[in-house]
Write a sequence for this structure.
């Protein structure tokens, strides 16, 4: 079955069942992000711009997004699926970064 057909079926089911219209909330602890982004923190430790400074999770995500954007610009492609996947990755990183910043400021 194609993904578009599955999406259509889910959309119809969501119209029929109000419980499916509620967006789920997923809680992720900051410690999980620290573990995931530890390799990025290690890379930033040796970067002259960040040397000697502690970079928080939001800063690490922002730097990862910047690195992905630079890689996307440097390695162009004409494949629309690859382009869409890259754009989706950047959007997800942007969304995660905004959520982490909101959490840090709360």
């Amino acid at each position: 079955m194609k993904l578009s057909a599955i999406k259509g079926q889910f959309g119809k089911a969501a119209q029929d069942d109000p419980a499916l219209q509620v967006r789920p909330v997923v809680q992720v602890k900051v410690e999980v992000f620290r573990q995931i982004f530890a390799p990025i923190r290690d890379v930033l430790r040796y970067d002259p711009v960040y040397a000697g400074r502690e970079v928080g999770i939001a800063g690490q995500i922002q730097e990862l997004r910047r690195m992905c954007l630079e890689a996307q610009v440097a390695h162009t492609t004409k494949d629309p699926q690859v382009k869409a996947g890259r754009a989706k990755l950047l959007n997800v990183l942007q969304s995660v970064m905004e959520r982490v910043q909101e959490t840090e400021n709360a």
